[in-house]
């Protein structure tokens, strides 16, 4: 068996229909790209109005990618978008739950200040974008795939900050600049919730006799124009002494999506973080 034949046997997704939430973001677009390159028809669900240059380029190259404007925290929008995908391409068999917000660099003083003053509305927005969205997306995915008897794969995206607490000392440089900065709890709580939702859903699918595997990908920090001082702090805490490139999780996505490559894996988490959580 040749190398190309081995790859084709393990990672050929030409018969699959995949949904990637948050697929216009930095990592989401990469996930959509690798799935499309492996032959899958990919539907991107994103709250944004405009597409990304990466996604537009893939569409121009002929890859089977569609973009759907969806707020995944709203059940009616989720069902509407699933209906569009099913009507055009067939029942989705791969779901990458990637969408979710964090407090942006230009967040308000309350959002990055003391925990005691963290706004309730910010907490709700972060938790809902990760967990409520994942909940609604998985509901419709299971509802549609169960009657078909097809095998499916759900990939929930967590974070190292869902496995270990953020190291607040990484942000000392901001405090030295006069800011009162703390990495808020909401993102970590949401990403931690992803881990047990994955375990719960994997067991539920077994009990419901739905042939869907459910796993979590735990990525580490990805370079995204961070200041040099922040990068240096990350390097000190990572065994590989660097942040990840945005394409370094593509192999994991392909592995978890493939019903042959990861056929005996469910309810598990795959940690790819340069050694961050090993210390």
TrEMBL record:
Q: Which Gene Ontology molecular function entries are recorded, alphabetically?
A: oxidoreductase activity, acting on the CH-OH group of donors, NAD or NADP as acceptor
Return the Gene3D superfamilies for the record. NAD(P)-binding Rossmann-like Domain (3.40.50.720)
- A Pfam family of this chain: adh_short_C2
Which keywords label this protein?
A: Oxidoreductase
Q: Which SUPFAM superfamilies match?
A: NAD(P)-binding Rossmann-fold domains
Instruction: Tell me where on the tree of life, at the top rank, the source sits.
Output: Bacteria
Q: Cross-referenced InterPro entries, in alphabetical order?
A: NAD(P)-bd_dom_sf, SDR_fam
Family to which the UniProt record says this protein belongs: Belongs to the short-chain dehydrogenases/reductases (SDR) family.
* UniProt name for this protein: Short-chain dehydrogenase
Where does this protein come from, organism-wise? Answer: Candidatus Wolfebacteria bacterium RIFCSPLOWO2_01_FULL_47_17b
């Amino acid at each position: 068996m040749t190398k190309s034949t081995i790859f084709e046997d393990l990672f050929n997704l030409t018969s699959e229909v995949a949904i990637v939430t948050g697929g216009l973001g930095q990592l989401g677009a990469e996930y959509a790209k690798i799935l499309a390159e492996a032959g899958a028809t990919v539907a991107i669900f994103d709250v944004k109005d405009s597409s990304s240059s990466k996604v537009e380029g893939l569409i121009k190259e002929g890859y089977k990618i569609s973009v759907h404007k969806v707020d995944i925290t709203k059940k009616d929008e989720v069902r509407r978008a699933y209906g569009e995908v099913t009507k055009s391409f067939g029942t989705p068999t791969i779901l990458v739950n990637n969408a979710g917000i964090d407090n942006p660099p230009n967040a308000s003083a309350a959002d990055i200040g003391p925990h005691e003053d963290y706004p309730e509305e910010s907490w709700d927005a972060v938790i809902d974008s990760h967990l409520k969205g994942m909940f609604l997306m998985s509901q419709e995915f299971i509802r549609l795939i169960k009657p078909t008897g097809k095998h499916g794969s759900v990939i929930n995206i967590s974070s190292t900050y869902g496995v270990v607490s953020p190291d607040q000392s990484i942000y000392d440089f901001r405090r030295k600049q006069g800011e009162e900065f703390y990495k808020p709890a909401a993102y970590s709580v949401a990403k931690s919730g992803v881990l047990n939702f994955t375990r719960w859903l994997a067991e539920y699918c077994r009990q419901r006799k739905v042939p869907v595997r459910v796993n979590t990908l735990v990525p580490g920090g990805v370079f995204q124009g961070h200041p040099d001082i922040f990068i240096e702090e990350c390097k000190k805490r990572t065994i590989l002494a660097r942040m990840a490139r945005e394409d370094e999780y593509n192999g994991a996505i392909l592995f978890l999506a493939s019903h042959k490559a990861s056929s005996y894996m469910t309810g598990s988490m795959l940690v790819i973080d340069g050694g961050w959580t090993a210390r």
